[in-house]
Amino acid sequence: MHLIELPSVMGPTGVGKSTFINTAAGKVVTPVGHDLQSCTATIQHAFCPYPGNRSRRIVFVDTPGFDDTFVDDSEILRRIAVWLATSYGNDMKLAGVLYLHDISQPRMFGTSRRNLDMFRRLCGEDAEKNVILVTTKWGDIVPDVGRRREEQLKSSFWKEMVEHGSRPARFEGSKESAWEVIKPILANKEVLEAIRIQQEMVDLGKMIPETDAGNTLRAALKEVAATHRRAVEGLRAGVGDDEERQRLKETEKELRELLKQIEDLKLPFMKRFLSLFTGR
Ligand SMILES: Nc1nc2c(ncn2[C@@H]2O[C@H](COP(=O)(O)OP(=O)(O)OP(=O)(O)O)[C@@H](O)[C@H]2O)c(=O)[nH]1
Ligand SMILES: [Mg+2]
């Protein structure tokens, strides 16, 4: 039996994860988005022949990114966590993880930072040696500008990861470039044992709210909810015109959704109660 190699592709929405996988596969195996809305909402996996070696089976795992609306973040985390835990529980090991970053973006916006933070929480420090930090959309910028940004990333946001063994790579749009990017992962003799969220959920029996990623997301959602609450209070205090009333309604709706997500990320009462006795 051949080992199935599972490189998992992660990163913010719209960064080009599905495009990368389709390019590597040489055909459309996972849908690509054409507007600002996130496209890959569920985890997709795509079988792909290994160029020049029919005996190797590779399955790319396409994951949804966390976006800047926070609307479905707890659901996205749940889908990623459940998929990773189930595959690990079924003895499918990840070959490595690709984290994609759009180099045409002038700055690390909130979404990029948050995605990177969530990614690191999901992955854990020990697995960072099996991470490839892939920059995309090089065709959209002047190469010199891209190179400068890449250096900045390596000396700031990616610094620790690079120190832990993560490897930066450029995806330049072609099939050859895609395979060049994943080569180090496929050259690894040993597959990645497990990333942090898999260990937490499968080996330690934790629930999503107890994981590092779950805790981080809950904290981020709480901060956004606090900002929304202040905005709602401000809007309620003013004698609003129609436009303001509309904005109030929308902000209240968003706040309700955020609070629901925070609730979803709380540990059920019984589990909290039992943990007082078991220490877990
Ligand atoms: N110019 C340029 N556009 C790209 C590149 N890669 C992807 N795109 C475009 O960026 C948009 C988003 O690409 P996707 O591959 O759907 O991105 P994704 O990361 O899978 O997005 P989600 O599924 O929403 O998380 C599409 O319109 C792509 O055509 C690239 O290298 N250069
Ligand atoms: Mg996608």
Could you give the count of β-strands? 6
Mean pLDDT: 87
Rg over C-alpha atoms, rounded to the nearest angstrom: 20 Å
Q: What is the CATH class of the largest domain?
A: Alpha Beta
Overall 3D form: globular
Name the strands of the widest sheet in spatial order.
Answer: 2-3-1-4-5-6
Instruction: Note the beta-strand portion.
Output: 15-25%
Can you tell me the CATH superfamily of the largest domain? Answer: P-loop containing nucleotide triphosphate hydrolases
Largest sheet: 6 strands, mixed
Low-pLDDT regions: none
Helical residue percent band = 40-55%
Helices and strands: which structural class? Answer: alpha/beta
> Helix and strand succession?
EHEEHEHEHHEHHHHH
And the CATH topology of the largest domain? Answer: Rossmann fold
What compounds are bound to the protein? Answer: guanosine-5'-triphosphate, magnesium ion
Count of individual domains: 2
N- to C-terminal distance: 38 Å
- Number of helical segments? 10
CATH architecture of the largest domain: 3-Layer(aba) Sandwich
